[in-house]
Amino acid sequence: MTEKTNSTLTASAETTRNRLRAGFISRDLYGVAAIVIVAAAGYVLFPDNLALLTRIIAIALLVLSLDLVTGYCGVATLGQAALFGSGAYAAGILSAHYGINDPLLMTLGGIIAGAVAGLVCGIVMLRAHGLPQLVLSIALVYLFHEFANKASSWTGGSDGLSGIVLDPLFGLYEFDLFGHTAYFFGVILLLIVFALLRIVVRSPFGMLCRGIKEDPVRIRAIGASPHKALIKMYIISGAVAGTGGALSAISTQVVALDALSFTQSAEALVMLVLGGTGSLFGALVGTLVFMLFEDFVSAANPFHWLTMVGALLIVVVLFAPKGIFGTVQDLLSARRNRTGETRP
Amino acid sequence: MSAVFEVINLKKAFGGLVVTNDVSLSMMAGDRVALIGPNGAGKTTFVNLVTGALKPSSGEVRLRNEPVTRIGPTGRVQRGLVRSFQVTRLFQCMTPAEHLGLAVLQRTGKSAQLHGNFLTRPAVMEEVDDLLERLGLYALAHRKVREIAYGQQRLLELAIALALKPSVLLLDEPAAGVPQSDTGRIEDALANLPADLAVLMIEHDMDLVFRFAKRVIVLATGTIIFDGLPADVTKDARVREAYLGSYANAGLNA
Ligand SMILES: Nc1ncnc2c1ncn2[C@@H]1O[C@H](COP(=O)(O)OP(=O)(O)O)[C@@H](O)[C@H]1O
Ligand SMILES: [Mg+2]
Q1: Which of B28, B45, B16, B15 is CA-nearest to residue B219?
Q2: What global pTM score does this model have?
Q3: B85 — contact with chain A (CB < 8 Å)?
Q4: From ligand 1's centre to the CA of B17, what distance in Å?
Q5: Per-residue pLDDT tens for A115-138?
Q6: Which residues of chain B are within 8 Å of residue A204 when distances are taken between CB atoms?
Q7: CA-based torsion, A323, A326, A329, A333: positive or negative
Q8: What is the pLDDT of residues A232-257, one digit of tens each?
Q9: Distance (Å) from the C-alpha of residue B136 to the closest C-alpha of chain A?
Q10: How many A from CA of B223 to the centre of ligand 2?
Q11: Carries keyword Transport (chain B) (predicted)?
Protein backbone atom coordinates (compact mmCIF):
# COMPACT_ATOMS: atom_id res chain seq x y z
CA MET A 1 0.00 0.00 0.00
CA THR A 2 2.62 2.51 1.12
CA GLU A 3 4.99 1.15 -1.48
CA LYS A 4 2.48 1.77 -4.17
CA THR A 5 1.83 5.35 -3.07
CA ASN A 6 5.56 5.94 -2.94
CA SER A 7 6.17 4.68 -6.42
CA THR A 8 3.32 6.81 -7.77
CA LEU A 9 4.78 9.83 -6.07
CA THR A 10 8.23 8.97 -7.37
CA ALA A 11 6.87 8.60 -10.86
CA SER A 12 5.14 11.95 -10.69
CA ALA A 13 8.29 13.68 -9.41
CA GLU A 14 10.19 12.07 -12.26
CA THR A 15 7.64 13.33 -14.79
CA THR A 16 7.82 16.82 -13.31
CA ARG A 17 11.57 16.72 -13.61
CA ASN A 18 11.51 15.67 -17.25
CA ARG A 19 8.89 18.29 -17.99
CA LEU A 20 11.06 20.95 -16.31
CA ARG A 21 14.08 19.96 -18.37
CA ALA A 22 12.09 19.91 -21.59
CA GLY A 23 10.46 23.20 -20.57
CA PHE A 24 13.78 25.08 -20.63
CA ILE A 25 14.54 24.16 -24.18
CA SER A 26 11.07 24.76 -25.52
CA ARG A 27 10.81 28.12 -23.79
CA ASP A 28 14.20 29.11 -25.24
CA LEU A 29 12.98 28.18 -28.69
CA TYR A 30 9.69 30.03 -28.20
CA GLY A 31 11.65 33.06 -27.06
CA VAL A 32 13.99 33.05 -30.02
CA ALA A 33 11.08 32.41 -32.38
CA ALA A 34 9.08 35.25 -30.80
CA ILE A 35 11.96 37.69 -31.25
CA VAL A 36 12.45 36.64 -34.87
CA ILE A 37 8.73 36.89 -35.65
CA VAL A 38 8.31 40.30 -33.97
CA ALA A 39 11.48 41.56 -35.66
CA ALA A 40 10.29 40.35 -39.05
CA ALA A 41 6.83 41.81 -38.49
CA GLY A 42 8.40 45.13 -37.56
CA TYR A 43 10.46 45.05 -40.70
CA VAL A 44 7.44 44.36 -42.88
CA LEU A 45 5.01 46.72 -41.12
CA PHE A 46 7.28 49.69 -40.52
CA PRO A 47 9.86 49.62 -43.30
CA ASP A 48 10.21 53.41 -43.05
CA ASN A 49 10.73 53.36 -39.34
CA LEU A 50 13.66 51.03 -38.89
CA ALA A 51 15.50 53.68 -36.90
CA LEU A 52 12.80 53.51 -34.23
CA LEU A 53 12.86 49.71 -34.24
CA THR A 54 16.63 49.67 -33.88
CA ARG A 55 16.38 52.13 -31.02
CA ILE A 56 13.82 49.83 -29.36
CA ILE A 57 16.35 47.00 -29.58
CA ALA A 58 19.11 49.13 -28.05
CA ILE A 59 16.84 50.16 -25.19
CA ALA A 60 15.65 46.56 -24.80
CA LEU A 61 19.26 45.62 -24.13
CA LEU A 62 19.41 48.35 -21.49
CA VAL A 63 16.19 47.08 -19.89
CA LEU A 64 17.45 43.48 -19.99
CA SER A 65 20.61 44.60 -18.23
CA LEU A 66 18.51 46.35 -15.60
CA ASP A 67 16.41 43.23 -15.15
CA LEU A 68 19.56 41.27 -14.31
CA VAL A 69 20.40 43.44 -11.30
CA THR A 70 16.93 44.61 -10.29
CA GLY A 71 14.65 41.78 -11.36
CA TYR A 72 16.95 38.85 -10.63
CA CYS A 73 19.04 40.22 -7.74
CA GLY A 74 16.76 42.77 -6.09
CA VAL A 75 19.17 45.71 -6.39
CA ALA A 76 17.10 48.85 -6.96
CA THR A 77 18.85 51.29 -9.25
CA LEU A 78 18.00 54.51 -11.02
CA GLY A 79 21.41 54.77 -12.64
CA GLN A 80 21.53 51.93 -15.13
CA ALA A 81 22.01 54.29 -18.08
CA ALA A 82 25.54 54.96 -16.77
CA LEU A 83 26.45 51.50 -18.09
CA PHE A 84 24.55 51.97 -21.34
CA GLY A 85 26.12 55.40 -21.95
CA SER A 86 29.61 54.10 -21.21
CA GLY A 87 29.14 51.51 -23.93
CA ALA A 88 27.79 54.10 -26.35
CA TYR A 89 30.66 56.52 -25.76
CA ALA A 90 33.30 53.80 -25.92
CA ALA A 91 32.00 52.56 -29.28
CA GLY A 92 31.67 56.12 -30.57
CA ILE A 93 35.10 57.26 -29.35
CA LEU A 94 36.79 54.22 -30.92
CA SER A 95 35.54 55.38 -34.29
CA ALA A 96 35.61 59.17 -33.91
CA HIS A 97 39.03 59.40 -32.24
CA TYR A 98 40.88 56.22 -33.10
CA GLY A 99 39.56 55.46 -36.55
CA ILE A 100 38.45 51.99 -35.48
CA ASN A 101 35.36 51.80 -37.65
CA ASP A 102 34.68 48.12 -37.64
CA PRO A 103 31.21 47.71 -36.09
CA LEU A 104 32.19 44.45 -34.40
CA LEU A 105 35.24 45.99 -32.75
CA MET A 106 33.18 49.01 -31.74
CA THR A 107 30.60 46.70 -30.19
CA LEU A 108 33.34 44.84 -28.37
CA GLY A 109 34.61 48.19 -27.07
CA GLY A 110 31.11 49.02 -25.87
CA ILE A 111 30.79 45.66 -24.13
CA ILE A 112 34.11 46.09 -22.32
CA ALA A 113 33.39 49.69 -21.31
CA GLY A 114 29.93 48.69 -20.08
CA ALA A 115 31.40 45.83 -18.05
CA VAL A 116 34.00 48.13 -16.49
CA ALA A 117 31.33 50.73 -15.71
CA GLY A 118 29.26 47.89 -14.22
CA LEU A 119 32.16 46.88 -12.02
CA VAL A 120 32.66 50.46 -10.81
CA CYS A 121 28.96 51.08 -10.18
CA GLY A 122 28.63 47.67 -8.54
CA ILE A 123 31.50 48.30 -6.14
CA VAL A 124 30.06 51.66 -5.11
CA MET A 125 26.39 50.70 -4.96
CA LEU A 126 26.79 47.42 -3.14
CA ARG A 127 28.26 49.22 -0.16
CA ALA A 128 24.74 50.35 0.71
CA HIS A 129 21.26 48.82 0.86
CA GLY A 130 17.74 50.03 0.25
CA LEU A 131 17.16 53.75 -0.05
CA PRO A 132 20.82 54.83 0.31
CA GLN A 133 21.63 52.39 -2.47
CA LEU A 134 19.04 54.03 -4.71
CA VAL A 135 20.50 57.44 -3.93
CA LEU A 136 24.00 56.19 -4.75
CA SER A 137 22.77 54.97 -8.12
CA ILE A 138 21.36 58.41 -8.91
CA ALA A 139 24.60 60.06 -7.75
CA LEU A 140 26.58 57.72 -10.01
CA VAL A 141 24.58 58.44 -13.13
CA TYR A 142 24.89 62.18 -12.48
CA LEU A 143 28.65 61.79 -12.03
CA PHE A 144 28.98 59.83 -15.27
CA HIS A 145 26.85 62.43 -17.02
CA GLU A 146 28.88 65.32 -15.65
CA PHE A 147 32.14 63.60 -16.51
CA ALA A 148 31.01 63.10 -20.11
CA ASN A 149 29.87 66.71 -20.21
CA LYS A 150 33.22 68.04 -18.95
CA ALA A 151 35.39 65.76 -21.07
CA SER A 152 34.05 67.47 -24.16
CA SER A 153 37.23 67.06 -26.21
CA TRP A 154 36.53 63.33 -26.09
CA THR A 155 32.77 63.21 -25.95
CA GLY A 156 31.67 66.40 -27.69
CA GLY A 157 30.04 67.46 -24.41
CA SER A 158 26.53 68.78 -24.77
CA ASP A 159 26.86 68.92 -28.56
CA GLY A 160 27.11 65.16 -28.61
CA LEU A 161 29.78 62.92 -30.08
CA SER A 162 29.80 63.01 -33.86
CA GLY A 163 32.22 61.90 -36.51
CA ILE A 164 31.39 58.22 -36.16
CA VAL A 165 32.15 56.41 -39.41
CA LEU A 166 31.30 52.78 -40.07
CA ASP A 167 32.97 50.10 -42.12
CA PRO A 168 30.65 47.58 -43.73
CA LEU A 169 29.44 44.85 -41.38
CA PHE A 170 31.61 41.72 -41.88
CA GLY A 171 33.22 43.78 -44.65
CA LEU A 172 30.13 43.12 -46.76
CA TYR A 173 27.09 45.07 -45.69
CA GLU A 174 27.24 48.86 -45.82
CA PHE A 175 25.32 50.73 -43.13
CA ASP A 176 22.70 52.27 -45.39
CA LEU A 177 20.69 55.43 -44.99
CA PHE A 178 17.47 53.48 -44.34
CA GLY A 179 18.97 51.57 -41.45
CA HIS A 180 18.50 48.06 -42.87
CA THR A 181 21.96 46.88 -41.87
CA ALA A 182 21.77 48.51 -38.43
CA TYR A 183 18.41 46.84 -37.83
CA PHE A 184 19.65 43.39 -38.79
CA PHE A 185 22.76 43.92 -36.73
CA GLY A 186 20.57 44.89 -33.77
CA VAL A 187 18.27 41.88 -34.14
CA ILE A 188 21.26 39.55 -34.27
CA LEU A 189 22.83 41.17 -31.20
CA LEU A 190 19.55 40.86 -29.31
CA LEU A 191 19.19 37.19 -30.24
CA ILE A 192 22.72 36.41 -29.11
CA VAL A 193 22.32 38.31 -25.82
CA PHE A 194 18.91 36.76 -25.16
CA ALA A 195 20.20 33.23 -25.74
CA LEU A 196 23.23 33.80 -23.50
CA LEU A 197 21.12 35.34 -20.74
CA ARG A 198 18.68 32.43 -20.84
CA ILE A 199 21.63 30.19 -20.11
CA VAL A 200 22.89 32.48 -17.34
CA VAL A 201 19.59 32.90 -15.51
CA ARG A 202 18.99 29.18 -15.13
CA SER A 203 22.62 28.33 -14.39
CA PRO A 204 23.82 27.67 -10.85
CA PHE A 205 24.84 31.34 -10.74
CA GLY A 206 21.36 32.45 -11.80
CA MET A 207 19.85 30.34 -9.04
CA LEU A 208 22.30 31.80 -6.52
CA CYS A 209 21.23 35.32 -7.54
CA ARG A 210 17.54 34.50 -7.10
CA GLY A 211 18.42 33.27 -3.63
CA ILE A 212 20.28 36.49 -2.85
CA LYS A 213 17.26 38.51 -3.89
CA GLU A 214 15.07 36.66 -1.40
CA ASP A 215 17.38 36.23 1.56
CA PRO A 216 21.08 37.12 1.60
CA VAL A 217 21.39 35.82 5.17
CA ARG A 218 20.35 32.36 4.04
CA ILE A 219 22.83 32.55 1.15
CA ARG A 220 25.65 33.38 3.55
CA ALA A 221 24.57 30.47 5.73
CA ILE A 222 25.23 28.06 2.86
CA GLY A 223 28.67 29.61 2.49
CA ALA A 224 28.20 31.80 -0.58
CA SER A 225 29.08 35.49 -0.67
CA PRO A 226 26.17 37.64 -1.92
CA HIS A 227 28.58 40.52 -2.51
CA LYS A 228 30.83 38.59 -4.86
CA ALA A 229 27.89 37.25 -6.82
CA LEU A 230 26.30 40.68 -7.14
CA ILE A 231 29.54 42.24 -8.39
CA LYS A 232 29.74 39.51 -10.98
CA MET A 233 26.15 40.13 -12.01
CA TYR A 234 26.88 43.85 -12.27
CA ILE A 235 29.74 43.13 -14.68
CA ILE A 236 27.49 40.92 -16.81
CA SER A 237 24.76 43.55 -16.66
CA GLY A 238 27.27 46.21 -17.73
CA ALA A 239 28.33 44.11 -20.70
CA VAL A 240 24.69 43.77 -21.79
CA ALA A 241 23.96 47.48 -21.31
CA GLY A 242 27.21 48.30 -23.11
CA THR A 243 26.07 46.19 -26.06
CA GLY A 244 22.91 48.28 -26.21
CA GLY A 245 24.92 51.49 -25.98
CA ALA A 246 27.24 50.39 -28.77
CA LEU A 247 24.26 49.47 -30.94
CA SER A 248 22.77 52.89 -30.32
CA ALA A 249 26.05 54.64 -31.25
CA ILE A 250 26.44 52.49 -34.38
CA SER A 251 22.87 52.86 -35.59
CA THR A 252 22.58 56.65 -35.09
CA GLN A 253 26.27 57.51 -35.56
CA VAL A 254 26.03 60.06 -32.75
CA VAL A 255 26.12 59.75 -28.98
CA ALA A 256 24.26 62.35 -26.96
CA LEU A 257 24.59 63.02 -23.25
CA ASP A 258 21.06 61.65 -22.83
CA ALA A 259 22.58 58.19 -23.23
CA LEU A 260 23.83 58.38 -19.65
CA SER A 261 21.08 60.43 -18.11
CA PHE A 262 18.97 59.91 -15.04
CA THR A 263 15.87 60.22 -17.24
CA GLN A 264 17.00 57.33 -19.43
CA SER A 265 17.67 55.25 -16.31
CA ALA A 266 14.27 55.99 -14.83
CA GLU A 267 12.53 55.25 -18.13
CA ALA A 268 14.29 51.91 -18.31
CA LEU A 269 13.00 51.06 -14.84
CA VAL A 270 9.49 52.06 -15.89
CA MET A 271 9.70 49.78 -18.92
CA LEU A 272 10.91 46.90 -16.78
CA VAL A 273 8.11 47.29 -14.25
CA LEU A 274 5.62 47.63 -17.09
CA GLY A 275 6.72 44.35 -18.67
CA GLY A 276 7.41 42.47 -15.44
CA THR A 277 10.60 42.17 -13.41
CA GLY A 278 12.57 38.99 -13.01
CA SER A 279 11.84 37.65 -16.47
CA LEU A 280 13.75 38.27 -19.68
CA PHE A 281 10.49 38.19 -21.61
CA GLY A 282 9.06 40.80 -19.28
CA ALA A 283 11.95 43.15 -20.03
CA LEU A 284 11.44 42.73 -23.78
CA VAL A 285 7.66 43.11 -23.64
CA GLY A 286 7.91 46.18 -21.42
CA THR A 287 10.36 47.93 -23.72
CA LEU A 288 8.36 47.16 -26.82
CA VAL A 289 5.03 48.26 -25.37
CA PHE A 290 6.39 51.40 -23.74
CA MET A 291 8.32 52.61 -26.76
CA LEU A 292 5.61 51.83 -29.30
CA PHE A 293 3.02 53.41 -27.04
CA GLU A 294 5.22 56.46 -26.56
CA ASP A 295 5.82 56.77 -30.29
CA PHE A 296 2.18 56.26 -31.18
CA VAL A 297 0.69 58.48 -28.50
CA SER A 298 3.22 61.27 -28.90
CA ALA A 299 2.43 61.40 -32.61
CA ALA A 300 -1.34 61.22 -32.08
CA ASN A 301 -1.48 63.72 -29.26
CA PRO A 302 1.77 65.61 -28.71
CA PHE A 303 0.29 67.64 -25.84
CA HIS A 304 -1.01 64.90 -23.63
CA TRP A 305 1.17 61.91 -24.41
CA LEU A 306 3.02 62.05 -21.10
CA THR A 307 -0.31 62.04 -19.28
CA MET A 308 -1.32 58.93 -21.16
CA VAL A 309 1.98 57.18 -20.48
CA GLY A 310 1.49 58.03 -16.82
CA ALA A 311 -2.07 56.67 -16.86
CA LEU A 312 -0.92 53.44 -18.51
CA LEU A 313 1.71 52.99 -15.83
CA ILE A 314 -0.72 53.56 -12.99
CA VAL A 315 -3.13 51.02 -14.48
CA VAL A 316 -0.41 48.41 -14.79
CA VAL A 317 1.10 48.98 -11.35
CA LEU A 318 -2.29 48.93 -9.62
CA PHE A 319 -4.03 46.18 -11.54
CA ALA A 320 -1.18 44.05 -12.83
CA PRO A 321 1.64 44.46 -10.33
CA LYS A 322 3.59 41.64 -11.93
CA GLY A 323 3.72 43.59 -15.16
CA ILE A 324 2.21 42.70 -18.50
CA PHE A 325 4.18 39.54 -19.04
CA GLY A 326 3.93 38.34 -15.44
CA THR A 327 0.17 38.81 -15.42
CA VAL A 328 -0.38 37.04 -18.73
CA GLN A 329 1.79 34.19 -17.49
CA ASP A 330 -0.25 33.90 -14.28
CA LEU A 331 -3.52 33.87 -16.21
CA LEU A 332 -2.23 31.17 -18.53
CA SER A 333 -0.93 28.94 -15.74
CA ALA A 334 -4.17 29.38 -13.76
CA ARG A 335 -6.04 28.18 -16.81
CA ARG A 336 -3.68 25.27 -17.33
CA ASN A 337 -4.15 24.21 -13.70
CA ARG A 338 -7.92 24.33 -14.02
CA THR A 339 -7.96 22.13 -17.10
CA GLY A 340 -5.32 19.88 -15.50
CA GLU A 341 -7.48 19.27 -12.43
CA THR A 342 -10.43 18.01 -14.41
CA ARG A 343 -8.41 14.95 -15.34
CA PRO A 344 -8.81 11.97 -12.99
CA MET B 1 41.91 13.83 20.24
CA SER B 2 41.64 17.59 19.74
CA ALA B 3 38.50 19.69 19.62
CA VAL B 4 36.88 20.43 16.24
CA PHE B 5 35.01 23.38 17.68
CA GLU B 6 36.07 25.61 20.52
CA VAL B 7 34.61 28.73 22.04
CA ILE B 8 36.78 30.65 24.48
CA ASN B 9 35.48 33.33 26.85
CA LEU B 10 32.88 34.59 24.42
CA LYS B 11 31.10 37.78 25.49
CA LYS B 12 28.37 39.85 23.95
CA ALA B 13 26.30 42.74 25.26
CA PHE B 14 23.47 44.56 23.52
CA GLY B 15 23.84 47.99 25.05
CA GLY B 16 23.83 47.26 28.78
CA LEU B 17 22.22 43.82 28.41
CA VAL B 18 24.82 41.06 28.67
CA VAL B 19 23.47 38.24 26.49
CA THR B 20 26.56 36.06 26.32
CA ASN B 21 28.59 36.06 29.49
CA ASP B 22 32.04 34.50 29.28
CA VAL B 23 30.90 31.37 27.48
CA SER B 24 33.51 28.67 26.86
CA LEU B 25 32.92 25.22 25.47
CA SER B 26 34.54 22.75 23.16
CA MET B 27 33.30 19.86 21.07
CA MET B 28 34.99 16.77 19.65
CA ALA B 29 34.15 15.00 16.44
CA GLY B 30 31.06 12.88 16.97
CA ASP B 31 29.79 14.85 19.97
CA ARG B 32 26.04 15.10 20.47
CA VAL B 33 25.38 18.12 22.65
CA ALA B 34 22.07 19.69 23.60
CA LEU B 35 22.06 23.38 24.50
CA ILE B 36 19.04 24.18 26.62
CA GLY B 37 17.90 27.12 28.66
CA PRO B 38 14.84 29.29 29.28
CA ASN B 39 13.57 31.59 26.54
CA GLY B 40 15.80 34.63 26.20
CA ALA B 41 18.79 32.85 27.75
CA GLY B 42 20.94 33.77 24.75
CA LYS B 43 21.00 30.47 22.85
CA THR B 44 20.24 31.92 19.42
CA THR B 45 22.62 34.79 20.09
CA PHE B 46 25.32 32.23 20.84
CA VAL B 47 24.75 30.61 17.45
CA ASN B 48 24.79 34.03 15.76
CA LEU B 49 28.09 34.86 17.45
CA VAL B 50 29.93 31.66 16.63
CA THR B 51 28.73 31.60 13.01
CA GLY B 52 29.83 35.20 12.49
CA ALA B 53 26.39 36.73 11.99
CA LEU B 54 27.07 38.90 15.07
CA LYS B 55 30.39 40.30 16.27
CA PRO B 56 31.28 39.32 19.85
CA SER B 57 32.41 41.98 22.31
CA SER B 58 35.35 39.73 23.13
CA GLY B 59 36.40 36.09 23.04
CA GLU B 60 37.47 33.63 20.41
CA VAL B 61 36.01 30.90 18.20
CA ARG B 62 38.20 28.13 16.78
CA LEU B 63 37.54 25.48 14.19
CA ARG B 64 40.04 22.61 14.26
CA ASN B 65 42.42 24.88 16.19
CA GLU B 66 42.17 27.67 13.63
CA PRO B 67 40.89 30.96 15.09
CA VAL B 68 37.97 32.10 12.92
CA THR B 69 36.84 35.10 14.95
CA ARG B 70 38.04 37.43 12.21
CA ILE B 71 36.67 35.29 9.40
CA GLY B 72 33.25 36.16 7.97
CA PRO B 73 30.17 33.92 8.05
CA THR B 74 30.80 32.43 4.59
CA GLY B 75 34.40 31.56 5.45
CA ARG B 76 33.20 29.70 8.54
CA VAL B 77 30.66 27.71 6.54
CA GLN B 78 33.37 26.80 4.05
CA ARG B 79 35.43 25.54 7.00
CA GLY B 80 32.61 23.22 7.99
CA LEU B 81 30.61 25.21 10.55
CA VAL B 82 26.96 25.09 9.51
CA ARG B 83 23.80 26.22 11.26
CA SER B 84 20.07 25.89 10.84
CA PHE B 85 17.64 28.65 11.75
CA GLN B 86 15.10 28.66 14.57
CA VAL B 87 12.61 30.37 12.27
CA THR B 88 12.88 28.82 8.84
CA ARG B 89 14.75 30.90 6.30
CA LEU B 90 13.94 29.56 2.87
CA PHE B 91 13.41 31.00 -0.58
CA GLN B 92 9.64 31.14 -1.01
CA CYS B 93 9.82 31.08 -4.81
CA MET B 94 12.18 28.13 -5.04
CA THR B 95 11.59 24.41 -4.79
CA PRO B 96 13.17 22.00 -2.29
CA ALA B 97 15.18 20.50 -5.15
CA GLU B 98 16.53 23.96 -5.99
CA HIS B 99 17.44 24.67 -2.37
CA LEU B 100 19.36 21.43 -2.07
CA GLY B 101 20.85 21.76 -5.56
CA LEU B 102 22.14 25.19 -4.66
CA ALA B 103 23.63 23.95 -1.39
CA VAL B 104 25.37 21.01 -3.09
CA LEU B 105 26.66 23.23 -5.90
CA GLN B 106 27.96 25.75 -3.39
CA ARG B 107 29.72 23.08 -1.36
CA THR B 108 31.41 21.66 -4.45
CA GLY B 109 32.47 25.13 -5.60
CA LYS B 110 30.15 25.24 -8.58
CA SER B 111 27.56 27.80 -7.51
CA ALA B 112 29.17 30.55 -9.61
CA GLN B 113 28.99 28.62 -12.89
CA LEU B 114 27.27 30.51 -15.64
CA HIS B 115 25.96 27.60 -17.67
CA GLY B 116 24.13 24.34 -17.30
CA ASN B 117 21.33 23.47 -14.90
CA PHE B 118 21.64 21.29 -11.83
CA LEU B 119 18.64 19.19 -12.87
CA THR B 120 20.74 17.79 -15.70
CA ARG B 121 23.75 16.99 -13.52
CA PRO B 122 23.61 13.41 -12.30
CA ALA B 123 26.25 13.93 -9.59
CA VAL B 124 24.27 16.78 -8.02
CA MET B 125 20.85 15.19 -8.49
CA GLU B 126 21.94 11.93 -6.91
CA GLU B 127 22.81 13.78 -3.72
CA VAL B 128 19.70 15.97 -3.89
CA ASP B 129 17.44 12.94 -4.35
CA ASP B 130 19.12 11.12 -1.51
CA LEU B 131 18.52 14.03 0.88
CA LEU B 132 14.93 14.49 -0.31
CA GLU B 133 14.31 10.80 0.23
CA ARG B 134 15.86 10.76 3.69
CA LEU B 135 13.66 13.60 4.90
CA GLY B 136 10.54 12.42 3.12
CA LEU B 137 10.41 15.39 0.78
CA TYR B 138 10.79 13.58 -2.52
CA ALA B 139 7.18 14.02 -3.60
CA LEU B 140 7.45 17.76 -2.97
CA ALA B 141 10.77 18.15 -4.76
CA HIS B 142 9.44 20.53 -7.39
CA ARG B 143 6.81 22.44 -5.44
CA LYS B 144 7.52 26.04 -4.52
CA VAL B 145 8.39 26.34 -0.83
CA ARG B 146 5.50 28.71 -0.22
CA GLU B 147 3.14 25.89 -1.22
CA ILE B 148 4.43 23.37 1.30
CA ALA B 149 3.57 23.00 4.98
CA TYR B 150 5.72 24.57 7.69
CA GLY B 151 6.66 21.20 9.15
CA GLN B 152 8.05 20.16 5.80
CA GLN B 153 9.87 23.46 5.49
CA ARG B 154 11.59 22.62 8.79
CA LEU B 155 12.69 19.31 7.32
CA LEU B 156 14.06 21.13 4.29
CA GLU B 157 15.93 23.51 6.58
CA LEU B 158 17.65 20.49 8.11
CA ALA B 159 18.28 18.93 4.69
CA ILE B 160 20.07 22.08 3.50
CA ALA B 161 22.40 21.95 6.49
CA LEU B 162 23.15 18.29 5.72
CA ALA B 163 23.74 19.05 2.03
CA LEU B 164 26.66 21.23 3.11
CA LYS B 165 28.38 18.18 4.70
CA PRO B 166 29.46 20.09 7.80
CA SER B 167 31.95 18.97 10.40
CA VAL B 168 30.20 21.03 13.10
CA LEU B 169 26.44 21.39 12.92
CA LEU B 170 24.48 23.88 15.04
CA LEU B 171 20.76 23.20 15.03
CA ASP B 172 18.54 25.96 16.43
CA GLU B 173 15.37 24.23 17.62
CA PRO B 174 15.05 21.92 14.62
CA ALA B 175 11.74 20.53 15.83
CA ALA B 176 10.09 23.88 16.63
CA GLY B 177 6.92 24.22 14.60
CA VAL B 178 7.04 20.66 13.34
CA PRO B 179 3.73 18.87 13.94
CA GLN B 180 3.88 15.77 16.13
CA SER B 181 3.34 13.57 13.08
CA ASP B 182 6.60 14.77 11.53
CA THR B 183 8.94 14.95 14.54
CA GLY B 184 9.73 11.27 13.93
CA ARG B 185 11.34 12.19 10.64
CA ILE B 186 13.45 14.88 12.27
CA GLU B 187 14.53 12.44 14.93
CA ASP B 188 15.35 9.79 12.35
CA ALA B 189 17.42 12.30 10.42
CA LEU B 190 19.21 13.31 13.61
CA ALA B 191 19.84 9.70 14.54
CA ASN B 192 21.33 9.02 11.11
CA LEU B 193 23.74 11.94 11.08
CA PRO B 194 27.32 11.00 10.18
CA ALA B 195 29.01 9.53 13.24
CA ASP B 196 32.02 11.87 13.13
CA LEU B 197 29.91 15.03 12.85
CA ALA B 198 29.89 17.24 15.97
CA VAL B 199 26.31 18.37 16.63
CA LEU B 200 25.07 21.04 18.99
CA MET B 201 21.30 21.16 19.15
CA ILE B 202 19.21 23.81 20.82
CA GLU B 203 15.93 22.21 21.85
CA HIS B 204 13.07 22.66 24.29
CA ASP B 205 11.53 19.22 23.95
CA MET B 206 13.24 17.38 26.81
CA ASP B 207 12.27 13.94 25.50
CA LEU B 208 14.08 14.71 22.28
CA VAL B 209 17.05 16.09 24.24
CA PHE B 210 17.37 12.96 26.35
CA ARG B 211 17.13 10.66 23.35
CA PHE B 212 19.61 12.62 21.29
CA ALA B 213 22.24 14.14 23.57
CA LYS B 214 25.20 12.53 25.26
CA ARG B 215 25.93 15.84 26.93
CA VAL B 216 23.76 18.76 27.99
CA ILE B 217 24.76 22.40 28.40
CA VAL B 218 22.41 24.75 30.20
CA LEU B 219 22.50 28.46 29.47
CA ALA B 220 20.73 30.93 31.74
CA THR B 221 20.89 34.70 31.23
CA GLY B 222 23.93 34.29 29.03
CA THR B 223 25.95 32.14 31.43
CA ILE B 224 26.68 28.43 31.25
CA ILE B 225 25.35 27.02 34.52
CA PHE B 226 25.66 23.35 33.71
CA ASP B 227 27.76 21.23 31.35
CA GLY B 228 27.51 17.51 31.92
CA LEU B 229 25.61 14.27 31.47
CA PRO B 230 21.90 14.29 30.65
CA ALA B 231 21.26 12.10 33.68
CA ASP B 232 22.63 14.77 36.01
CA VAL B 233 20.97 17.82 34.56
CA THR B 234 17.61 17.44 36.26
CA LYS B 235 19.27 16.95 39.63
CA ASP B 236 21.35 20.09 39.41
CA ALA B 237 20.25 22.74 41.90
CA ARG B 238 21.20 25.75 39.78
CA VAL B 239 19.44 24.36 36.74
CA ARG B 240 16.27 23.77 38.75
CA GLU B 241 16.50 27.30 40.07
CA ALA B 242 16.98 28.78 36.56
CA TYR B 243 13.92 26.94 35.33
CA LEU B 244 11.86 27.49 38.43
CA GLY B 245 8.49 28.94 37.62
CA SER B 246 9.14 28.56 33.95
CA TYR B 247 7.33 26.24 31.58
CA ALA B 248 10.17 23.74 31.43
CA ASN B 249 10.02 22.90 35.13
CA ALA B 250 7.45 20.22 34.43
CA GLY B 251 9.62 18.77 31.72
CA LEU B 252 12.64 18.64 33.99
CA ASN B 253 10.68 16.94 36.72
CA ALA B 254 9.53 14.24 34.37
N1 LIG C 1 19.83 42.21 18.07
C2 LIG C 1 19.48 42.31 19.37
N3 LIG C 1 19.47 43.51 19.99
C4 LIG C 1 19.14 43.60 21.29
N5 LIG C 1 18.81 42.57 22.06
C6 LIG C 1 18.79 41.34 21.51
C7 LIG C 1 19.13 41.15 20.13
N8 LIG C 1 19.03 39.82 19.85
C9 LIG C 1 18.66 39.23 20.99
N10 LIG C 1 18.52 40.13 22.00
C11 LIG C 1 18.16 39.82 23.38
O12 LIG C 1 19.09 38.88 23.84
C13 LIG C 1 18.45 37.95 24.69
C14 LIG C 1 18.73 36.56 24.22
O15 LIG C 1 18.01 36.30 23.04
P16 LIG C 1 18.12 34.92 22.24
O17 LIG C 1 19.55 34.64 21.99
O18 LIG C 1 17.23 35.00 21.08
O19 LIG C 1 17.54 33.90 23.32
P20 LIG C 1 17.10 32.37 23.15
O21 LIG C 1 17.45 31.90 21.79
O22 LIG C 1 17.87 31.66 24.22
O23 LIG C 1 15.64 32.31 23.43
C24 LIG C 1 16.99 38.30 24.72
O25 LIG C 1 16.74 39.05 25.89
C26 LIG C 1 16.80 39.15 23.51
O27 LIG C 1 15.77 40.09 23.71
MG1 LIG D 1 16.29 31.15 20.25
Answers
A1: B45
A2: 0.89
A3: yes
A4: 9
A5: 999 999 999 999 998 899 999 999
A6: 101-102, 105, 110-113, 116-118
A7: negative
A8: 999 999 999 999 999 999 999 999 99
A9: 10
A10: 15
A11: yes
